Amino acid sequence: MHSGVTAEIENEQAAGRFHRDGSVDVAVLVVTYRNAAHIDALVADLRREAGTVSLRVIVADNSSADDTLAVARRHDDVIAVATGGNLGYSGGLNVAMSHAGAAEAVLVLNPDLRVVEGAVGALLRRLRYDRRIGAVVPLIHDEDGEIYPSLRREPTLVRACADGALGRIWQSRPAPLSEYVRSSDAYRRAHPIEWATGAAILVRRDAAAAVGSWDERFFLYSEETDFQRRLRDAGFQIWFEPEAIVVHEGSGSGTSADLVALTIVNRVRYVDKHAPRQAEAFRAAVVVGEQLRRDPSHSRARWALARRSRWAELPRAERDPISPAEYPAASIIIPAHNEAAVIERTLRPLSSLAEAGAIEVLVVCNGCNDDTAARARAVPGVRVFETPVASKTSALNLGDDHATRWPRIYLDADIRVSPEALEPVIRALADGTSLAGRPAFRVNTEEASPLVHAYYRARDRMPSTSGALWGAGAYGLSEEGHGRLGRFPDVTADDLYVDRLFGASEKALPAGAPVEVMPPRSADALVRVLTRNRRGPAEQGVETASSSLRELARTIAGPLTAADALVYAGFAVAGRIKGNRAARDGRTSWERDESSREAAAAMPTAAVDHVILTRFNLPTPGPESLVRAREGWLRERIDLFERYTVPSVSRQTEKGFRWIVYLDPQSPSWLLERLAPHVEAGLFTALYRESVSWQDVAVDARSLTGASGSILLTTNLDNDDAIADDFVERLQALARRHPRAALFLGRGIIAHGDEVYLRRDDENAFCSVAEPWDAPVTAWRDWHTLLHDHLPVVTDGGRPAWLQVVHGGNVSNRVRGVRVSPFAYRALFGDLLDELPAPPRGTVAFDRLVRSPARFSRETVRGLGKRAFVAVAGKDGLDRLKARMAGQ
Are 47 and 79 in contact (CB under 8 A)? Predict the structure, then answer.
């Protein structure tokens, strides 16, 4: 540390020390994300305040890429903690709150604030003025010294309509028509308010305890609206205190298109939670307002508002990988009745944590007459219990009898789950902030029929599905929450029963990685499930028909949503009729979906040895050698490799693969130094070869994997491209269904500068070969366009699986496909598309009408010519022609 910095910190500490232990007046909570430049200044201001108010300062860092945490830890009396990921503002505050200790109040501060002298004392005096005051907010100045309009009114449908129609032309609207409080008089005097922006807010500790944790469904924005609403609902007042002043430096959280969209979407989320009957009308008003505004920076918001399922692609909590030693303890109880087709798929992601003793996984086989128990016992770390009684609730009770840890997660056997999805809800239940909870969830309708798609689209638009414990196939209880339940009664819908035991403030519904629900694939299967779903509420005296109908009607915003709503209503009526008929006839069979289980059964659980293959800078004959000899090619290539290829491979949802990167033995030392951290981290194995044949690849793959599986899967990956986060997972599933074939994930993205194109290429360069180990030929047996000469070809469509980058060093890659907005595909590729703008609608339309057909025609002619030439002159002849054309 520089001597000047050391002296400065010592001087600051002399001005006022913070208390890491004991009771204090105020615990200051600061959530940071890339705020290294702001910490020292804020700490200096707080030290001055500590001269009159005893303070504890907690900095909770959301995995900043800069040295924010290191800067905070230079101050030895600041409690600086890592949150374990980018948990958003609410998630970070909940972590910080767990370190607050004994304090009369907690002060939430943005890290880029400056605190004017006496502000903390003024806030505390106002809080102490009346026990009914639950929170106090200060006056905020901007960098220019102007008053920032931080006071707000409750969002309403009327205000949303007025904002959309009048927002830009009449800012000084009367209170009933505006959420913003703009009257200068309101900022001159202390008075009760509805709510204020969350840059700075002092909260009475017992008031914070009364309303519970910050709602992590609001990753960023609207979390303060929700928290202050809950304070008011609990009987506390919120006051504005103009004698307390802070200055906001203005960097905030950035202004990316995703964050703009999140600001607007979270307003709808807020209304979903607190006024669900108005939610769809409110969303429609916001949609209309955005269309009238036509602000180019809001194009992502308009895209997201169109469909609720798109909200999952906006910024959300992302947790860092957790080692078993750091994973929170829990018991996971899985009732299973004849679940042989899916049980291993559910258990496999939890196995390593269970084997390490981090969690307890119990499978309760109830009334099984298949080999569910044997399959579950084969998974390391899993405990299996059996009962002849085919009853889910009896199985849950039996699991409780043998479980030894809290909290408890109750998980259906057909849910696709990851440790990352369960971890946030386990922590929320373990720290006592919530009594019940469930993880985020996503309904995977990719294999479902169009009618089933329409049903779930309509259901997704209904706000009631977002605030309940049911629907995810997974929910949890703390020990205290379980005490309220006691034992599970003999009911059909256990999740509905448990949900009704708890109020909204007692439930944890954290955002983050979702569990994946596999819905029925066919209309008949969906009706069977809805028949059972109808019986569950009826048993518990719950009648939802009229409220569901009203909620469904409010989702209609045009012909397409009306069609979806009609399909939903049709299925609901069919399920109700069959359910009532079954009840009248005394039939109590468990109608369950077999279609998704049949799909899982068609995916064998054969072990796959998966090896990804990358040529980095091997000497290459033919015209490519000219490009590779170009000045700067290697430095450009390593930049692309680290920008695209490395992060995309690191983010794979399925980690069971190996990666070989082939390098020239004469590679320069600077290149090896750039690659060394990735090798040391175990991301890939570097092999040095002057040349590599497909036979060499087979030998290397055997040596690396030990040929322990029954299938070898090899995949080609160029050193300047990227793969979607679930690329490996999808490929391995395809390999299990087609264990001897050339495999292609057919849809992908082509990026050229700021332009993005959607491409369908059934025999693309991201080729794979699945085969037995007896005589492997690997994905490098031939050109990817000629693998059909050696193996059957299987192409899987679906969502885009790869990202091809067109740049100056490409040999054969070109812009192909149709121009699209990157927004719809960002969630598939981490942050690789985040900085790319949305093209204007006119540009997209012109591309689809004119440029795309022209590109298609050129590619068709080019492809036909190439195939004809290769048929006559062979591959070597084509290389000679390319070399001659390149002047070699």
Answer: no
